[in-house]
Design a protein that fits this description.
7-stranded mixed β-sheet, 10 helices
Length: about 270
């Protein structure tokens, strides 16, 4: 229904029929409208990225708000959406938060929510990019505050923390993206995640994931894949360079549902580890 309304708006309000020749633009606009309408006033425990609707849960079932409130220094958040999740950061502890949000239609609401959380001005920078290497790294290199430190070919050890919530289901090269995020962390840096993952073998949830993917879920949900072993990709990200993470603390939720989640933190080894 939201897609139909977006098409009608394009034709009769915007009077831009040629825009219909670009279906990806129409789809993205429709999902941006859907996001803003559905998640206005909803807490970050329920807000999702990649436009996936998580069933309602009991209050505080996710550890994400507490994990975010403890982060400090220079932070990168991937796919913040409208920024309700970003508001859990403690502004007094944040030097700068870089917000990598590819959906431009969400930026005005993102900026408003970030400013309301005390993270406006020099405390935050919104980047028009995704999490994948060929989008994120050039965007970081263009930033004034990072230019002196970085070259696109060798961007490493920049952030004290990276927040990755409901994003890795969408990136084209998940394993490579996870390795890039690991490289971007400073020694001792934290990767805070909340990602949906592939279901257990033999479960009804796993079967439904396959069925939804076969019905075109990935296209309609802007690249989202239900059947990725995201936890393995995250654990393996540190194996090649450092032999593993210093700390891996991940909890699984809704284990047998269509959208099982992992929530927690992975800590990079320090210089002396």
């Amino acid at each position: 229904m939201n897609l139909i309304l977006t098409i009608l708006k394009t034709l009769f309000i915007d009077q831009a029929p040629l825009r219909l020749l670009h279906p990806l633009q129409i789809r993205n606009a429709a999902f941006a409208n859907f996001w803003n309408a559905l998640f206005s006033g909803i807490s970050s425990n329920q807000q999702t990225h990649c436009h996936i609707v998580q069933p309602p849960q009991e209050p505080d079932t996710s550890a994400l708000p507490g994990l975010l409130s403890n982060l400090h220094g220079t932070i990168l958040e991937l796919g913040p959406g409208t920024g309700t999740q970003t508001a859990h950061l403690d502004a007094a502890k944040v030097m700068t938060v870089y917000l990598a949000e590819p959906t431009v239609e969400l930026h005005s609401q993102l900026r408003a929510n970030v400013e309301a959380a005390g993270l406006g001005g020099a405390k935050s920078r919104i980047l028009v990019c995704g999490a994948e290497e060929d989008s994120l790294l050039p965007a970081l290199a263009r930033e004034v505050g990072l230019k002196r430190e970085l070259e696109v070919s060798s961007i490493t050890e920049v952030f004290d923390a990276i927040v990755c919530a409901r994003v890795l289901c969408c990136v084209p090269r998940q394993a490579q993206t996870a390795r890039n995020l690991y490289a971007l962390l400073k020694p001792g840096g934290r990767l805070v995640v909340r990602e949906h993952v592939v279901g257990r073998v033999g479960g009804l949830g796993r079967a439904l994931q396959w069925a939804y993917m076969g019905l075109g879920w990935r296209w309609w949900m802007v690249g989202c894949c239900l059947d990725r072993d995201t936890e393995k990709a995250l654990r393996d990200a540190a194996a090649e360079s450092d032999g593993g993470w210093h700390v891996v603390d991940l909890k699984r939720e809704t284990e047998w549902g269509v959208l099982p989640f992992i929530t927690g933190v992975l800590v990079k080894k320090g210089k002396s580890s």
